[in-house]
Inverse folding.
Protein backbone atom coordinates (compact mmCIF):
# COMPACT_ATOMS: atom_id res chain seq x y z
CA UNK A 1 0.00 0.00 0.00
CA UNK A 2 1.18 3.51 -0.84
CA UNK A 3 2.80 5.16 2.22
CA UNK A 4 0.61 8.27 2.04
CA UNK A 5 -2.52 6.16 1.64
CA UNK A 6 -1.63 4.03 4.65
CA UNK A 7 -0.85 7.15 6.68
CA UNK A 8 -4.04 9.00 5.76
CA UNK A 9 -6.13 5.95 6.73
CA UNK A 10 -4.45 5.93 10.14
CA UNK A 11 -4.88 9.71 10.39
CA UNK A 12 -8.63 9.37 10.00
CA UNK A 13 -8.73 6.60 12.61
CA UNK A 14 -6.83 8.84 15.02
CA UNK A 15 -9.17 11.76 14.34
CA UNK A 16 -12.15 9.52 15.04
CA UNK A 17 -10.58 8.44 18.33
CA UNK A 18 -9.89 12.06 19.30
CA UNK A 19 -13.53 12.93 18.52
CA UNK A 20 -14.80 10.01 20.61
CA UNK A 21 -12.61 10.91 23.60
CA UNK A 22 -13.61 14.56 23.29
CA UNK A 23 -17.31 13.65 23.24
CA UNK A 24 -16.88 11.50 26.34
CA UNK A 25 -14.95 14.25 28.14
CA UNK A 26 -17.49 16.92 27.24
CA UNK A 27 -20.39 14.70 28.31
CA UNK A 28 -19.02 14.41 31.86
CA UNK A 29 -20.44 17.69 33.27
CA UNK A 30 -23.93 16.76 32.10
CA UNK A 31 -23.62 13.27 33.58
CA UNK A 32 -22.46 14.68 36.92
CA UNK A 33 -25.22 17.31 36.85
CA UNK A 34 -27.79 14.58 36.20
CA UNK A 35 -26.53 12.54 39.15
CA UNK A 36 -26.52 15.59 41.41
CA UNK A 37 -30.01 16.48 40.20
CA UNK A 38 -31.26 13.00 41.12
CA UNK A 39 -29.79 13.34 44.61
CA UNK A 40 -31.19 16.87 45.01
CA UNK A 41 -34.63 15.65 43.94
CA UNK A 42 -34.44 12.79 46.46
CA UNK A 43 -33.43 15.18 49.27
CA UNK A 44 -36.05 17.74 48.25
CA UNK A 45 -38.81 15.10 48.28
CA UNK A 46 -37.59 13.91 51.70
CA UNK A 47 -37.65 17.47 53.10
CA UNK A 48 -41.10 18.13 51.62
CA UNK A 49 -42.46 14.99 53.29
CA UNK A 50 -41.02 16.10 56.63
CA UNK A 51 -42.66 19.51 56.18
CA UNK A 52 -45.94 17.83 55.31
CA UNK A 53 -45.63 15.62 58.40
CA UNK A 54 -45.07 18.69 60.59
CA UNK A 55 -48.02 20.47 58.94
CA UNK A 56 -50.17 17.39 59.51
CA UNK A 57 -49.32 17.42 63.23
CA UNK A 58 -50.19 21.12 63.47
CA UNK A 59 -53.49 20.58 61.67
CA UNK A 60 -54.39 17.78 64.10
CA UNK A 61 -53.52 19.96 67.09
CA UNK A 62 -55.62 22.79 65.63
CA UNK A 63 -58.55 20.40 65.19
CA UNK A 64 -58.10 19.10 68.72
CA UNK A 65 -58.13 22.70 69.93
CA UNK A 66 -61.33 23.34 67.95
CA UNK A 67 -62.92 20.25 69.50
CA UNK A 68 -61.98 21.40 72.99
CA UNK A 69 -63.47 24.84 72.36
CA UNK A 70 -66.71 23.33 71.04
CA UNK A 71 -66.90 20.93 74.00
CA UNK A 72 -66.58 23.87 76.37
CA UNK A 73 -69.30 25.66 74.41
CA UNK A 74 -71.57 22.59 74.65
CA UNK A 75 -70.96 22.44 78.41
CA UNK A 76 -72.04 26.04 78.77
CA UNK A 77 -75.11 25.45 76.62
CA UNK A 78 -76.09 22.43 78.71
CA UNK A 79 -75.78 24.53 81.85
CA UNK A 80 -78.00 27.11 80.18
CA UNK A 81 -80.70 24.51 79.51
CA UNK A 82 -81.83 24.82 83.09
CA UNK A 83 -82.20 28.57 82.72
CA UNK A 84 -84.43 28.72 79.61
CA UNK A 85 -88.06 29.60 80.29
CA UNK A 86 -89.88 28.29 77.20
CA UNK A 87 -90.03 25.04 75.25
CA UNK A 88 -89.01 26.84 72.06
CA UNK A 89 -85.87 28.16 73.72
CA UNK A 90 -85.17 24.69 75.12
CA UNK A 91 -85.59 23.05 71.70
CA UNK A 92 -83.43 25.71 70.04
CA UNK A 93 -80.71 25.14 72.62
CA UNK A 94 -80.83 21.36 72.08
CA UNK A 95 -80.62 21.85 68.32
CA UNK A 96 -77.60 24.09 68.74
CA UNK A 97 -75.95 21.51 71.00
CA UNK A 98 -76.70 18.80 68.42
CA UNK A 99 -75.11 20.87 65.70
CA UNK A 100 -72.02 21.46 67.80
CA UNK A 101 -71.73 17.74 68.56
CA UNK A 102 -71.95 17.12 64.81
CA UNK A 103 -69.07 19.57 64.32
CA UNK A 104 -67.06 17.57 66.87
CA UNK A 105 -67.71 14.31 65.03
CA UNK A 106 -66.68 15.95 61.76
CA UNK A 107 -63.46 17.25 63.33
CA UNK A 108 -62.76 13.82 64.83
CA UNK A 109 -63.18 12.24 61.38
CA UNK A 110 -60.71 14.75 59.97
CA UNK A 111 -58.24 13.95 62.75
CA UNK A 112 -58.55 10.25 61.96
CA UNK A 113 -57.91 10.89 58.25
CA UNK A 114 -54.87 12.98 59.11
CA UNK A 115 -53.57 10.28 61.46
CA UNK A 116 -53.78 7.75 58.62
CA UNK A 117 -52.08 10.21 56.28
CA UNK A 118 -49.38 10.86 58.91
CA UNK A 119 -48.65 7.14 59.22
CA UNK A 120 -48.15 6.87 55.45
CA UNK A 121 -45.94 9.96 55.34
CA UNK A 122 -43.93 8.81 58.36
CA UNK A 123 -43.28 5.50 56.64
CA UNK A 124 -41.94 7.30 53.57
CA UNK A 125 -39.85 9.63 55.73
CA UNK A 126 -38.32 6.68 57.59
CA UNK A 127 -37.56 4.84 54.36
CA UNK A 128 -35.96 7.93 52.79
CA UNK A 129 -33.94 8.64 55.95
CA UNK A 130 -32.60 5.08 55.87
CA UNK A 131 -31.62 5.46 52.20
CA UNK A 132 -30.29 9.02 52.30
CA UNK A 133 -26.70 8.35 53.32
CA UNK A 134 -26.55 5.43 50.91
CA UNK A 135 -27.79 7.65 48.07
CA UNK A 136 -25.20 10.30 48.91
CA UNK A 137 -22.46 7.67 48.94
CA UNK A 138 -23.68 6.14 45.68
CA UNK A 139 -23.72 9.49 43.88
CA UNK A 140 -20.32 10.46 45.27
CA UNK A 141 -18.85 7.12 44.14
CA UNK A 142 -20.39 7.45 40.68
CA UNK A 143 -19.08 11.00 40.29
CA UNK A 144 -15.63 9.86 41.35
CA UNK A 145 -15.77 7.01 38.82
CA UNK A 146 -16.79 9.41 36.05
CA UNK A 147 -14.00 11.82 36.96
CA UNK A 148 -11.47 8.97 36.91
CA UNK A 149 -12.75 7.93 33.47
CA UNK A 150 -12.46 11.53 32.32
CA UNK A 151 -8.84 11.71 33.48
CA UNK A 152 -8.11 8.48 31.62
CA UNK A 153 -9.86 9.83 28.52
CA UNK A 154 -7.81 13.03 28.68
CA UNK A 155 -4.60 11.00 28.92
CA UNK A 156 -5.65 8.75 26.04
CA UNK A 157 -6.68 11.71 23.91
CA UNK A 158 -3.31 13.35 24.53
CA UNK A 159 -1.57 10.15 23.48
CA UNK A 160 -3.67 9.90 20.33
CA UNK A 161 -3.15 13.58 19.51
CA UNK A 162 0.61 13.10 19.85
CA UNK A 163 0.45 10.17 17.45
CA UNK A 164 -1.73 12.23 15.10
CA UNK A 165 0.93 14.93 14.89
CA UNK A 166 3.50 12.28 14.00
CA UNK A 167 1.31 10.76 11.27
CA UNK A 168 0.22 14.14 9.85
CA UNK A 169 3.84 15.30 9.72
CA UNK A 170 4.84 12.18 7.80
CA UNK A 171 2.15 12.83 5.17
CA UNK A 172 3.05 14.67 1.99
CA UNK A 173 1.73 18.24 1.98
CA UNK A 174 -0.70 17.71 -0.95
CA UNK A 175 -2.32 14.66 0.65
CA UNK A 176 -2.57 16.35 4.03
CA UNK A 177 -4.15 19.40 2.42
CA UNK A 178 -6.57 17.17 0.49
CA UNK A 179 -7.56 15.32 3.65
CA UNK A 180 -8.11 18.55 5.60
CA UNK A 181 -10.15 20.04 2.76
CA UNK A 182 -12.43 16.99 2.54
CA UNK A 183 -12.95 16.99 6.32
CA UNK A 184 -13.87 20.67 6.20
CA UNK A 185 -16.39 20.52 3.39
CA UNK A 186 -17.70 16.96 3.47
CA UNK A 187 -19.77 15.46 6.30
CA UNK A 188 -18.82 11.98 7.37
CA UNK A 189 -15.51 10.26 6.63
CA UNK A 190 -12.80 11.84 4.49
CA UNK A 191 -11.32 8.42 3.68
CA UNK A 192 -13.61 5.58 2.60
CA UNK A 193 -13.20 1.93 1.77
CA UNK A 194 -14.20 0.62 -1.62
CA UNK A 195 -16.13 -2.62 -1.39
CA UNK A 196 -17.71 -4.62 -4.21
CA UNK A 197 -17.02 -1.83 -6.67
CA UNK A 198 -18.86 0.72 -4.50
CA UNK A 199 -17.56 3.69 -2.56
CA UNK A 200 -18.88 2.96 0.94
CA UNK A 201 -19.22 6.69 1.68
CA UNK A 202 -21.58 7.63 -1.17
CA UNK A 203 -22.65 4.13 -2.36
CA UNK A 204 -21.95 4.97 -6.00
CA UNK A 205 -20.65 2.26 -8.34
CA UNK A 206 -17.18 3.08 -9.64
CA UNK A 207 -16.08 2.65 -13.23
CA UNK A 208 -14.25 -0.68 -13.72
CA UNK A 209 -10.98 1.01 -14.71
CA UNK A 210 -11.06 3.29 -11.67
CA UNK A 211 -12.02 0.38 -9.46
CA UNK A 212 -9.04 -1.63 -10.66
CA UNK A 213 -6.70 1.31 -10.05
CA UNK A 214 -8.02 1.72 -6.51
CA UNK A 215 -7.64 -2.00 -5.82
CA UNK A 216 -3.90 -1.72 -6.36
CA UNK A 217 -3.58 0.81 -3.49
CA UNK A 218 -0.49 2.16 -5.27
CA UNK A 219 -1.61 5.80 -5.21
CA UNK A 220 -3.84 8.22 -3.32
CA UNK A 221 -7.04 8.32 -5.39
CA UNK A 222 -10.43 9.93 -4.84
CA UNK A 223 -13.98 8.86 -5.60
CA UNK A 224 -15.24 10.43 -8.82
CA UNK A 225 -18.62 11.07 -7.21
CA UNK A 226 -17.95 12.33 -3.66
CA UNK A 227 -14.25 13.28 -3.98
CA UNK A 228 -13.28 11.34 -0.85
CA UNK A 229 -9.99 9.51 -0.63
CA UNK A 230 -10.65 5.84 -1.32
CA UNK A 231 -8.77 2.60 -0.68
CA UNK A 232 -9.35 -1.11 -1.06
CA UNK A 233 -9.15 -3.90 1.50
CA UNK A 234 -8.86 -7.44 0.22
CA UNK A 235 -11.75 -9.46 1.65
CA UNK A 236 -10.78 -12.42 3.83
CA UNK A 237 -10.65 -15.79 2.08
CA UNK A 238 -13.35 -18.10 3.35
CA UNK A 239 -12.15 -21.61 4.10
CA UNK A 240 -14.29 -24.32 2.49
CA UNK A 241 -16.70 -26.03 4.83
CA UNK A 242 -15.97 -29.63 5.82
CA UNK A 243 -17.40 -32.06 3.26
CA UNK A 244 -17.89 -29.34 0.62
CA UNK A 245 -17.72 -30.15 -3.10
CA UNK A 246 -14.12 -30.61 -4.18
CA UNK A 247 -13.01 -32.12 -0.88
CA UNK A 248 -11.62 -35.61 -1.09
CA UNK A 249 -13.87 -38.00 0.78
CA UNK A 250 -12.53 -41.32 1.99
CA UNK A 251 -15.08 -44.12 2.02
Amino acid sequence: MHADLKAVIELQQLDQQVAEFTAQIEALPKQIAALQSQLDAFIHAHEERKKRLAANLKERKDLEGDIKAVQEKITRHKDQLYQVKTNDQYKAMLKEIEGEEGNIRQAEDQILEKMIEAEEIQKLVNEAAARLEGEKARVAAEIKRLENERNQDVEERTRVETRRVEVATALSSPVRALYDRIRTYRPGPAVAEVRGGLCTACNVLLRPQVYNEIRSNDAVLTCENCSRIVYYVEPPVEEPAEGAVGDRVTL
Residues 39 and 136 are 7 Å apart (CA to CA).
